[in-house]
């Protein structure tokens, strides 16, 4: 049995000074010996990601930040590392050691949680030892509107309360976002065009395709899956025109040509721009893309580090298309995996992959950072649609975004 | 990006005495520092599984058996552990240390490779040190028909030859098995009925469904995916009857009732009995199932260790159905994950899960062991079909198996 995709699990990160009991708190939450618990401060040296079931929420990704704070205060490297984790954190748990002072470390974290709209649950741990934190409790309530949970990870006291508080504070949209469920009615048909290119490993479908099929099933729709070469046969097999056709962006051109104008057509990448990102921000990116000049500088960012094919979309095709349109002096920089430049203001445009491996919070953090640096950003699929002149058509299934795009152009 | 499912990757296990250079050989094969290499014998204590690309084969699962042989000869525990790995090994690499004797250890392994039809590539490692194994080379050729590759994992000499030999000796059927590709013609439609039950994690499809959709795409077919509640709407949307309907076995009854008799219907579990197991062996299991008596003893074996739901198929539903048919004194034993009893002859029937997490070789090993113990074996889905009287219909898409079943009944 496979589990819920990583990017689909709410990310819960546990912060706190060394030896505050982060790992044992995670153990207690999950009723299993997962994290390495030790009396020696700073046992783990890197954040540890662990996919698990956390009732009543269900599947989550738990992040143990042990090691980041090994000297007790928040040095520059540690600040950076913490903030990197907060960028993808849907909900933070801040563990305060009953025996240790509450100070700059906690305040800096709380300020960053506020700044990034990251909901937080505060916990005062080790209350099995003499409790002397009434002052901290007051301060948290007064300055941060937080009512900390008094807990002993050791004895289990307070764990149930923590579990419930996490479920209560978890943002709803990490659970209830639609891919196409909001525009497909029960019993309607959706054709999914999924080219099998040389990059597709044997025996599987790529994650956005699987998630889209599942979303259609969840909303009582009917999916028809075919390659671009069988699209005509698929349409011919149906009594009526499908409600919607969704294609991989690489086949956009061919599919748009094969399909009557009155059939709604969009791309997986546009669905995922909506589901995991922000269509409005990407539309500003599309405008910028249309206005790129010969000496501009473009950052191409890819969230995963897969082996590049000879005709790789990010490293080969997109630069080629863009240069043939704008001019060969167009400058490109590439980053992949966890890398993402701190200073984005050097770039004129960020071209980002579909982010199937990132959770929504991290995509939104990357978009926010681009906005703050005044840089436009667009994802691969929308860029391809725009470059090939079919973004208009691909936006029609989404009336609000379509109107916005028409006004903005 | 997701990778090829584990069960779909050819499994290559590297055997050899401690310090023969297994880990460094794997490193050299893969051009990356993957395994932990050390001068101290017996660095790793458990077999290490590593999914990787091995050119020219593609995605494989590499198994480093270090630690199993830490005392140099093959004690009983180590024999057992080695054989457990061989059960799932599609191809074995036996590393012989140029500096150490060739003896009982290697002979026992080679005999087991022979017995289990496991192809093997022999390697004499460390030939950068004085080479004195001509006698061993002769013996391997004479007694085992093996021409060992002379190799230095250290310098890289012989690595390319090893790579090619692995690709050459890898059994073809780990790569070319069909799920439905052999019975669906280009442009034909296949309806896949995929109930979304409470056990299905959010945002995904279970692996057999994904693999079936992919197999249909690979063979130019058209998949129509719906829940059992939208089956009628799906059929109504099509101009012609589909070539085939495939259902999750839990919805077999409802789907069979909703579907005209002249439409071919089968189950994912029957497809996977063919793809990963042996339909013929399972049909003998179906016969035994029909003849079960009140005091018989049934082993229920599940390959994964997922959390059990209240209405779990293996622990709740199947025992309930069987007892209501045969009598309440029917005895059940349950195993899950890697557990699988050595002595199967105590049981009258083995009921095995669909094995989506096992590779084909391990499923076939489990079946062979049952056959050798004289015990019938059947998988969940075929058992459900048989218990509900629809196995006949579910076999019709496969004429040879259907005939066999009619003769056998």
TrEMBL record, chains A, B:
Domain Hydrogen maturase F tetramerization: 281-397
Coiled-coil features, chain-numbered ranges: none
Organism the protein comes from: Halanaerobium hydrogeniformans
Organism taxonomic ancestry: Bacteria, Bacillati, Bacillota, Clostridia, Halanaerobiales
GO biological process, one term: tRNA methylation
Keywords: GTP-binding, Nucleotide-binding
A Pfam cross-reference name: HydF_dimer
Gene3D superfamilies from the UniProt entry: 3.40.50.11410, 3.40.50.11420, P-loop containing nucleotide triphosphate hydrolases
Domain G: 11-126
Domain Hydrogen maturase F dimerization: residue ranges: 179-277
Recorded GO CC terms: cytoplasm
GO molecular function, one term: GTP binding
Protein name: Small GTP-binding protein
């Amino acid at each position: 049995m496979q589990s819920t995709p990583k990017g689909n699990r709410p990310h819960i990160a546990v912060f706190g000074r060394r030896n505050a009991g982060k790992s044992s708190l995670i153990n207690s939450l999950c009723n299993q010996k997962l994290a390495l618990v030790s009396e020696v401060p700073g046992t783990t040296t890197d954040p540890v990601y662990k996919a698990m079931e956390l009732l009543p929420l269900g599947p989550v990704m738990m992040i143990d930040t042990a090691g980041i704070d090994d000297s007790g205060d928040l040095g520059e490297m540690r600040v950076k590392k913490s903030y990197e984790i907060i960028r993808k954190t849907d909900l933070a748990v801040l563990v305060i050691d009953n025996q240790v002072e509450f100070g700059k470390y906690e305040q800096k974290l709380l300020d960053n949680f506020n700044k990034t709209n990251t909901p937080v649950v505060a916990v005062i741990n080790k209350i099995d030892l003499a409790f002397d934190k009434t002052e901290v409790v007051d301060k948290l309530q007064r300055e941060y509107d937080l009512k900390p949970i008094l807990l002993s990870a050791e004895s289990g006291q307070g764990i149930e309360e923590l579990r419930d508080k996490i479920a209560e504070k978890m943002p709803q949209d990490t659970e209830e976002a639609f891919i196409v469920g909001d525009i497909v009615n029960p019993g309607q048909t959706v054709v999914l065009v999924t080219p099998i290119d040389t990059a597709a490993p044997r025996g599987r479908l790529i994650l956005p395709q699987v998630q889209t099929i599942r979303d259609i099933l969840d909303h009582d729709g009917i999916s028809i899956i075919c390659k671009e070469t069988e699209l005509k046969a698929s349409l011919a097999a149906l009594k009526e025109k499908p409600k919607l056709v969704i294609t991989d962006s690489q086949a956009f051109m061919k599919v748009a040509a094969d399909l009557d104008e009155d059939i709604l057509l969009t791309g997986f990448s546009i669905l995922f721009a909506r589901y995991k990102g922000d269509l409005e921000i990407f539309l500003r990116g599309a405008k910028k893309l249309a206005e790129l000049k010969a000496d501009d500088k473009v950052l191409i960012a890819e969230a995963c580090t897969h082996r590049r094919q000879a005709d790789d979309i990010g490293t080969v095709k997109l630069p080629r298309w863009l240069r043939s349109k704008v001019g060969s002096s167009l400058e490109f920089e590439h980053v992949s995996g966890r890398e993402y430049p701190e200073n984005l203001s050097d770039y004129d445009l960020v071209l980002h992959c579909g982010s199937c491996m990132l959770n929504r919070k991290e995509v939104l953090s990357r978009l926010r950072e681009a906005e703050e640096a005044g840089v436009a950003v667009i994802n691969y699929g929308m860029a391809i649609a725009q470059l090939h002149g079919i973004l208009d058509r691909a936006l029609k299934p989404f009336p609000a975004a379509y109107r916005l795009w028409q006004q903005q152009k």
